[in-house]
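Interim report, section 4.2 (structural modelling).
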Amino acid sequence: MASQVRRDIVRMVYYCQSGHPGGSLGCTDFFVTLYGAYLNHSADFKMEGKGEDLFFLSNGHISPVWYSVLARSGYFPIDELSSFRKLNSRLQGHPTTHEGLPGVRVASGSLGQGLSVSIGAALAKKLDADTGLIYTLTGDGELDEGQNWEAIMSAAHHKVDNLIVTVDWNGQQIDGPTSKIMNLGDLPAKWTAFGWEVIILEEGNDIEKVSEAFELAQSKLHQGKPIVILMKTNMGFGVDFMMNSHKWHGIAPNEEQCKAALAQLEETLGDYIYVPNYKPFHKS
Amino acid sequence: MTSIDNLIVTGKKATRDGFGVGLLELGRTNQNVVALTADLLGSLKMDEFKKEFPERFFQMGIAEANMMGVAAGMTINGKIPFTGTFANFSTGRVYDQIRQSIAYSNKNVKICASHAGLTLGEDGATHQILEDMGMMRMLPGMTVVVPCDAHQTKLATLAIADHYGPVYLRFGRPVWPIFTENLPFEIGKAQFLNTGADLTLIATGHLVWNCVEAAKALAAEGITCDIINIHTIKPLDTEAILESVRKTGCVVTAEEHQINGGLGDMIAGLLSRN
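Predicted structure of the assembly:
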């Protein structure tokens, strides 16, 4: 699955010649593990998601990996990936809700907002004695945004212990390494000091290790503390020339680079059929 | 028909008091209503709601951006969150959070804002926000309601809970005459408080009362006025305004907002397009 999702990401970004392959490739193993094994969800999408686990993507620019995993989980037709980043598409560059794409519950893209939304969803589930959990992914560069720290403080204060946040700790942001652009300092110590249960996942591109981290996180639920997995990933993982650099954060491969990337990624489930003028779905 | 001759002042209260009363009533009648504040519980008159429904009240501290996001998240399983803070912290400070997490995401959040406009008084210019209506009415799907007295603020608070979609409810601090006790309230429907022939007075919020007083003074001089209370800035009841202005051919607007993006701006645009 992960290899196929990575092929989808490369092809989506290639066909529209824009988008964010780096973080998408880096978080592929997280998405595949979450949707495949841990998220209690239904592809028969309902906004309220009562009784289900809800997932929120705060770093909305890595939409290619999410769209691919949603499509391959049955939320919408796989060929619709063709419409990524096109005018009037349900698959906007950054996720939105107004065209009703199944699987998306809130718009994201302007960074730093997803954690707050997740806390709200988690508090509402607690009010309703709904046992569903909230899973959230944020970037590490995104933690520069002050709203996150408001949210982190409030989740501990309100004992939001039905929430598992994962930080894509790849150490990169658009302008360069996080250490140079805005040093995050001792990230585990910061989350700990804010009152969170902190799990460090050293190998976020190893599905077995990601699974272990989810298992550990789930064992710490409902104990009065919110939970964060600080997940080290390699931006661009799976394509050798895209790895270990912020360079592929937000650029698309040319034809040659696309071919070279796909040569490294096995086609396991069948590529989606690229339809240049995919007719966008619209709510009636 | 309502006229300045039968508008009775039944008391004096702040519009924010009307919000507090409305919120408490909603707490009792609608299980989905939840309330959040950013360290301004007392100023927003949310104390009684908190006392009666502690499990549905959320103190979010001085962190308005997070509060807006949390409110957005709460709507997902059907909650109707009412956020309460001052108007400047309810809008400009959190514009991007409202734009993305609430308006673009069409979340059923009620952004309730006190201490708007010049009638805030002594706190001064930093707090007397005069840009909020313009900012909020630009957002897609946002309904903007600015009631004129405490009673109408209570009715508006009740009404917005039944209206699906994001709402900005603007009110304030001064103790103000209550004069709409016998009048109904409907979102989006302009309220005629007097019928005349010479001038159309259009106002929103506290200044509706000043227009009533102005109309009385003008009547003494033989000038009769239509008074239109635009308690809903968006969607604007354009027909009511056009009909009146066609009759009188003369308009004066009154509001606690700067020219750009406010009520006067909207009316000028409406008239120039028609």
